[in-house]
Structure formats: C-alpha cells, structure tokens
Design brief:
With about 230 residues, the chain is an alpha+beta fold. The chain has helices at about 15-20, 70-90, 150-170, 175-180, and strands at about 5-10, 30-40, 40, 50, 55-60, 70, 95-100, 105, 110-120, 125-135, 185-190, 195-205, 210-215, 220-225, 230-234. Strands 1, 2, 5, 6, 7, 8, 9 and 10 form an 8-stranded mixed β-sheet that branches.
Length: about 230
C-alpha cells in the first residue's frame, strides 16, 4: 500500500488539520499526518489530548475516497484499535487494555486515545479520518506512558501502516479480538442521564454501542457514546 506522509514539528491538531484539508488529501492513496507536539489535540467530543512535546506518537490517517455503510465503520475502528494495541504491546510488560470506545489503558491509567470521524454522503461514509495519540517516552501527570527507549519515527510509520491495513482489510474476527483486550470486566460503575449504576459490559455492536447488564437485571441495555459514562471499577 502507498501512504503519503506529512509531518509537522508542531501543530494545533493533526486531526483538525486533516478535517480542514480533506480536499488536499489524495483521492486514491492514504495520507498520514503526524507532529512532534500539538497545541490543541483533538479527543472525543469536547475532550482535548495533551502530550509532552517530542515524547509521543501523534498520528492521523486519512482514507482515499471510499464507500462504507454505517455499520461497516465501527468494526474497522475497533480493528484499528486492536492493531495499534498489538503494535505497542511489545514495548511494555504490562497488558494494554481497550476502554470503550476510544482509549488505550496501561496499569489503570490512560496511555492513548483513538478517534474516528467520517465524511458522509447520506448513509454512506466516503472518507475516514482516524487519529491516534500515544504517550511513549513521557506522559503528562496522571497519564501512562510506555516508558522505554523507542524510535518514535519508526514506531509512527509502523503504526500508520498497521492502522491503514486494518481499515483496508475486512476481518470478521475483529470484534472478538477487540473484546479480548477489553478493560471492562465484571461489575463497574457507570452513569447515564438518570444517575450512576453498577453494570457489567457485555458486548459492542457494529454501530459502536455498548451493551450493559445492570446489577440484578437480565436485560441488556444499549448505549451510544455520550449516553453513558464509565466511572471506573466497582
């Protein structure tokens, strides 16, 4: 596969740059945008991603023009999350875990974040922008990092190739792989618009919804991101 690489010493946000310059990205090849540091890293919703300058992988990949149904987008997101995790895992002895829907966790702290945003035409996604931020050599206070000697340039390229491969290939096993790395186990604390509750995360579906089974109940309730918040281990 051919990937166009574009690197900045510093930038407001690789993700925001990609969204603002989609028309400048190749229609037939993937584009990888990276930076040594970001001033306004994009997270999910209004969240911001912080990095220690020169110590993290900050990467956005932009697809060529594609045609994906809505239910085909999130399975590729979780496949990309899995290959990113598997690329990073050799650099730490502790297991890296996936927190629904967009975070990488290491020993109870956030190691990195993932973000997928699409350009839509009706019910079809015609371009995908996937971003990944990972604390590698150092992390802001309260966050995790790999804390090992790593060639950031080589790691960035490896991650770009891995996530592009995940978005390109159709893998029917990606959901099982995603769940096998899940952070969520047993009863945990969650919160929706009605308040906090204890529930067990049971599954995710092709639209990115999480299925929660509340304590003492048999039914599974499904939530989109933004409708429920994970508060931690119960």
């Amino acid at each position: 596969m051919y990937i166009n690489y574009l690197h900045f010493k510093e930038i407001d946000s690789t993700h925001a740059h990609a969204m603002a310059h989609l028309a400048d990205c190749s229609d037939v090849h993937w584009t990888a945008i990276s930076a040594d540091t970001q001033h306004a890293g994009k997270g999910q919703g209004a969240n911001k991603w912080q990095d220690v300058p020169g110590k993290a992988v900050l990467l956005t990949v932009v697809s060529p023009v594609i045609q994906l149904n809505a239910e085909a987008v999130f399975p590729r997101h979780w496949a990309a999350a899995v290959v990113a995790l598997e690329t990073l895992q050799p650099f730490t002895s502790a297991p890296i875990r996936l927190k629904w829907p967009n975070d990488l966790y290491l020993e109870g702290k956030k190691l990195g974040g993932l973000l997928t945003e699409g350009q839509w035409s009706g019910e079809r996604c015609k371009r995908v922008v996937f971003s990944l931020g990972v604390n590698v050599l150092e992390a802001p206070e309260g966050f995790a990092c790999l804390d090992t000697v790593v060639d950031l340039v080589a790691l960035r390229k490896h991650l770009a190739e891995a996530v592009v491969g995940a978005w390109t290939e159709e893998d029917g096993q990606s959901q099982d792989a995603y769940l096998s790395h899940w952070l969520h186990e047993g009863l945990e604390e969650w919160q929706d618009e009605a308040g906090s509750f204890r529930a067990k995360a049971m599954d995710v579906d092709a639209f990115g919804r999480i299925g929660l089974q509340r304590e003492g109940q048999e039914d599974v309730q499904w939530y989109l991101h933004g409708q429920v918040k994970w508060l931690g281990k119960g």
